[in-house]
Amino acid sequence: MKLHGRDDDIKLLRSKLRELTKKKDDDDEDAAKNLVHAKDHVGEMIFVSGTSGTGKSALIHKGLGNHAAKSGYIFASGKFNDKLQKPLSAFSDAMTRLAKNITTENSKMGELSSGGPSIATLIRNKIQNEFDEEDAEQLRRVLPGCAELLGLGPRRPSLFCPSSYADKVALFRSAPQLGSAKRRLRVSLTLVGKESIAQMHYAVRRFLKIICSQLKGVVLLIDDLQWSDAATLDLLKSIVLDGEIPRLLIVGAYREDEVPDHHPLAFHIRELDQMKVAITKIRIGNLSVDYAILLVAEALGMDDDDSKVKSLAETIHRKTEGNPFFMLMFLRSLYDEKLLQYNFGVMKWTWDDDAVNSKIVTENVASVLVNKMSRLQEETQRMLM
Q1: Angle at 262 between CA 259 and CA 263, to 5 degrees
Q2: Burial, 71: exposed, middle or buried (Cβ in 10 Å; 0-12, 13-18, 19+)?
Q3: Per-residue pLDDT at 99
Q4: Which one has a higher pLDDT value, 297 or 371?
Q5: Rounded Cα distance, 258 and 339, in Å
Q6: Number of alpha carbons in the 13 Å side-chain half-sphere of residue 378
Q7: In Å, what is the CA distance from 265 to each residue of 35, 76, 209, 259?
Q8: Closest by alpha carbon to 65, among 7, 2, 14?
Q9: H or E, element range at 118
Q10: 193 or 36: which carries more pLDDT confidence?
Q11: What is the DSSP string of 199-240?
């Protein structure tokens, strides 16, 4: 289905993809001339915001996802879940999709086109040459879906840190009466914990640098950032500030009405602004009446010049405030209640304007529509949201 009223936003997103292409061409040209540039820049991010149902995810997939694939880039996404509060979950999911793409499609292309090693093999070999086993194992635990790309290795007991940290935690818990010694140990634990997180950030950045250097470009979408955790926000900041990861574009999407000024994400965006990170902010709102008419006409397969279609669209727009998702769900509710029916005699949809006008949309109805959406498959939700 066409995204009505989003043409300018789609053009802006695709211009960012073209900038990524230009960076690759410049990098290739510099490499051919044996030029080496100092680390003098940081990365950039795109943030797409809007209320639920305005089509943030659909916009990003239309503007970047589909276009990236045609241009030879890899587009990978991960989505936070308000019911699953798991650190780094969306980032891990995006990296899993990225790794799966590399180990399947790109591997086949590499072997078929050149007869040489696949991209996955090149990446795996580089990881084995540059990573010690502790770093590789740390990545396997943080990004379990990337295990195949990272290569196999023995399992280790700790997640973000060496065993010494786990030993100190055990000692701390088993010695409740140590007084000042315990306070010193608490400080030591904090320092070791911060060091472990820094090591994890560095390992992830090195991993991304290896991946991106072997590909034409990578776009990572982290969706529903309003439910993100602090660990993810810190990791994203670390990645975008690195300055040495080539051809990587990170996109974040969030519900603006769930991110007040004191929200961690709002603070994170302000902090990136202060650090001179190139941030592109796209805010999408509800549709105007004109675009609402186009949406309803397309959904019904009818002419947008039809006066009855215009009247229906104007009514739906008034009742839903032009929210694209609610408009489609409202149409569906009309069908479910037999207020909208397909007349096979005249081969088009028919409805009673008075009945549609009398249908009331309350907060409860909106809640029902949201619940209906939550039962849809993820792919369908993404196209609607």
Answers
A1: 40
A2: middle
A3: 95
A4: 297
A5: 34
A6: 6
A7: 38, 21, 25, 7
A8: 14
A9: none
A10: 193
A11: HHHHHHHHHHHHHHHTSS-EEEEEE-GGG--HHHHHHHHHHH
